[in-house]
């Protein structure tokens, strides 16, 4: 009757807590009302013929609407982006109108607005008002004028990640560039990263002062893994708004030697008529979390301690091997290896009085490639 050598099956569950890091899912804006948004470029602005305190994108906004009650458009929020000379405002949608609505922005000031295309600058302070019209150009509602200080409302452009490199097996070195801010502003940035196949991001904050070129090293990563990385920054004289996340960049940590020994079982046959016996070794593949790279093969080293010249090293890509032994005691050790090195050995001693049997080899941790054995 055939005897089956059953491999140990081990399940390892590891929960890692990373101090100072905050796991978060994709950003989601939750509002009780849906939000509308309009962006105005400085080049779109034009003056009103009979009102030099007003700048508009649509000439019909120059016409006063005394019959419309202001304040129906609510919860206005605006930011200014200096690089593209634009202002973006968002607000709650009108819920009491079922048709299509067109929204426009117009800008006003108690001071004369001499050149409308040039009013978007860090020294400017003016009012912005939202007008809601039906598809028949009838004004449905106006917001209250919202005072906008462009210095305080400045929102940086998204950073640009220039490089990601692996510093160690557990870290990535990230470099990026940011806007050139005025006023000797302090710039702060935050970084998020995730394994490419993961759903959740991990976010870290760089509280140091960042100049035009930011640098940060992400620690405590898994070896031989691919990560997505993005950066967001705040700065300028207001430091109120964070930039959009940068375009995601990919980075990979390097391969390292396998961290766990193999689970190996053995079967020894009795001596045959030629004074030799067969040793059968079989092992279980390492868990992917322990390989830290692509397993290239397995190395078996066997030697009689009393006849070291008879020692042999065999490499195989199979999950087991047959060895022919003479009637001597043997030291046997087995390991897996990848491009970075070998795993800790699994070791056993085969005595010359050992009868036909099945069994498991002992584990000896800490012995790795280059420590007391031949290299492959």
UniProtKB/TrEMBL annotation:
<dbReference type="InterPro" id="IPR003961">
    <property type="entry name" value="FN3_dom"/>
</dbReference>
<dbReference type="Pfam" id="PF00041">
    <property type="entry name" value="fn3"/>
</dbReference>
<comment type="similarity">
    <text>Belongs to the type I cytokine receptor family. Type 2 subfamily.</text>
</comment>
<keyword id="KW-0325">Glycoprotein</keyword>
<keyword id="KW-0812">Transmembrane</keyword>
<feature type="domain" description="Fibronectin type-III">
    <location>
        <begin position="155"/>
        <end position="256"/>
    </location>
</feature>
<keyword id="KW-0732">Signal</keyword>
<keyword id="KW-0472">Membrane</keyword>
<keyword id="KW-1133">Transmembrane helix</keyword>
<dbReference type="InterPro" id="IPR013783">
    <property type="entry name" value="Ig-like_fold"/>
</dbReference>
<dbReference type="InterPro" id="IPR036116">
    <property type="entry name" value="FN3_sf"/>
</dbReference>
<keyword id="KW-0677">Repeat</keyword>
<keyword id="KW-0675">Receptor</keyword>
<feature type="signal peptide">
    <location>
        <begin position="1"/>
        <end position="23"/>
    </location>
</feature>
<feature type="domain" description="Fibronectin type-III">
    <location>
        <begin position="260"/>
        <end position="356"/>
    </location>
</feature>
<dbReference type="GO" id="GO:0005886">
    <property type="term" value="C:plasma membrane"/>
</dbReference>
<protein>
    <recommendedName>
        <fullName>Fibronectin type-III domain-containing protein</fullName>
    </recommendedName>
</protein>
<dbReference type="InterPro" id="IPR052672">
    <property type="entry name" value="Type1_Cytokine_Rcpt_Type2"/>
</dbReference>
